[in-house]
Amino acid sequence: MTKVFSEQNKPLPDFRRFFWWIQDPGVIDLEEYKKEIILQVVNYGGWRHWQWLVRHYGKETVKEIVQEIPESAFMPRVLKLIKLLLKINKLRYASRSDYIRAKKNL
């Protein structure tokens, strides 16, 4: 199978395997999976991973995406950091079960 690389279909940085287990991390559409990538990196990443997010997507885009994601999708240990670094006063609330149901379109 030949992998095709394009502007949208690029390899993630070397740390990708740690965060990305949904599909082959060698090639991924960084725009199509932007929300999932940001969520994974925010929840499990270190400072260099945050820096990559901001360099790649821009701080405003990361902030907009984070504000779309319910607070319950984030690990408790990163909530204060998110609010501090992205200057967010309040995140969207949805219970975890509501979030899962919405994702499955039940």
Describe what this molecule looks like in 3D.
The protein is mainly α. Helices cover 53% and strands 4% of the residues. The protein is built from six helices and two strands, in the order E-H-E-H-H-H-H-H. The chain has helices at residues 16-19, 34-44, 47-57, 59-68, 76-86, 96-104, and strands at residues 9-10, 28-29. The protein has a two-stranded antiparallel sheet with strand order 1-2. It is globular, with a radius of gyration of 14 Å. 10% of the residues are buried.
Protein structure class: mainly alpha
Q: Report the biggest beta sheet as strand number plus sense, adding barrel if it closes.
A: 2 strands, antiparallel
Strand order, largest beta sheet: 1-2
The coarse overall form would be globular
Mean of the pLDDT scores? 77
Give the distance, in angstroms, between the N- and C-terminal Cα atoms. Answer: 35 Å
**How many strand segments?**
2
Kindly provide the radius of gyration, computed on alpha-carbon positions and rounded to a whole number of angstroms. 14 Å
**Count the helices. How many?**
6
N-to-C SSE string, H for helix and E for strand:
EHEHHHHH
Poorly predicted runs:
1-9
Question: What labels would you give this structure?
Answer:
106 residues; disordered N terminus; mainly alpha
How is the secondary structure organized here?
Elements: E1 9-10, H1 16-19, E2 28-29, H2 34-44, H3 47-57, H4 59-68, H5 76-86, H6 96-104
Antiparallel strand pairs: 1-2
